[in-house]
Amino acid sequence: MPYRRLPNTDTARIKALRSAVEMSTEIDFQQLPFSTGLLTEAKQVLAKLERLSARYQQMLDVQVKANRQFLHKVKSVRMYLSHFVQVLYLSVLRAEIKEDQLILYGLEEENMVVPDLSSHEQILSWGEKIIEGENARISRGGVPIYNPSIAKVKVMYALFREGYQNQLLHKKATNRVQCEMTEYRETTDSLICRIWDEVEKTHMALPPEERLEENRRFGVVYYFRKGETVE
């Protein structure tokens, strides 16, 4: 005999509930294989689950679209920060800037190597240090570095920081809806299980193949093990 298995995705949960609800509109009231109370509950749970699923997909789409734009900002700020530090190091090697001034940028222990900018947090940290360091050096009478200028670096850094903060907000909103869906799955699974129990009980007297077919019409999902047949 095949075994049944509860849905393991939200799409499958919606499909199972929708099958039960839609089939209930196609048959006489007396032929409904589960209680009207369960039917009312199924309609309510289905409506909420569909709303949550649509909201989650909408939030996720917004997050993905924003992330594509954000990646361009990440690439730009990383390039500008890297180029700026390289020009700074070259100026030190040419004795145009004293090496001890690297401390203003937090670069005194980097051994003339561009700092790691692989993560967003590192970009935020180093971007702030480098901008503050250049401003401090200039305020002491130092000649500004050009190509790229610190003004251009600031623009790229500001765009990156704004994009980063927006991404955190998008992610937080998406995760909040996802948590709602996760919490609601227990309610949904319990309801599906109760509906399936009543459907199977109602059709218990039918021949095996007919019984499985009738149960499937109301959303019950069966799986056969290898070599297994209907009994």
Approximate helicity band:
55-70%
Strand order of the largest sheet: 1-2
From the N-terminal CA to the C-terminal CA, the straight-line distance is 5 Å
User: Mean pLDDT, rounded to whole units?
Assistant: 94
Q: Which stretches are low in confidence, meaning pLDDT under 50 for 5 or more residues running? A: none
Strand content: under 5%
The SSE order reads EHHHHHE
Domain tally:
1
Tally of helical runs:
5
According to DSSP, the number of beta strands is: 2
Description:
This protein has 231 residues and is mostly helical. The chain has one domain. The chain contains 5 helices and 2 strands; from the N terminus they run E-H-H-H-H-H-E. Strands 1-2 form a two-stranded antiparallel sheet. The longest helix has 58 residues, at 36-93. The protein is rod-shaped. The model has no long low-confidence stretch (mean pLDDT 94).
List descriptors.
2% strand; 2 strands; 68% helix; 231 residues; two-stranded antiparallel ribbon; mainly alpha
Layout: helices, strands, pairs:
Blueprint: E1 3-4, H1 10-24, H2 36-93, H3 120-139, H4 150-202, H5 208-217, E2 222-223
Antiparallel strand pairs: 1-2
Helix pairs in contact: 1-2, 1-4, 2-3, 2-4, 3-4
Short account of what is shown:
The protein has 5 helices and 2 strands, in the order βαααααβ. The protein is mainly alpha-helical and 231 residues long. Helix 1 packs antiparallel against helix 2 and helix 3 (120-139) runs antiparallel to helix 4 (150-202).
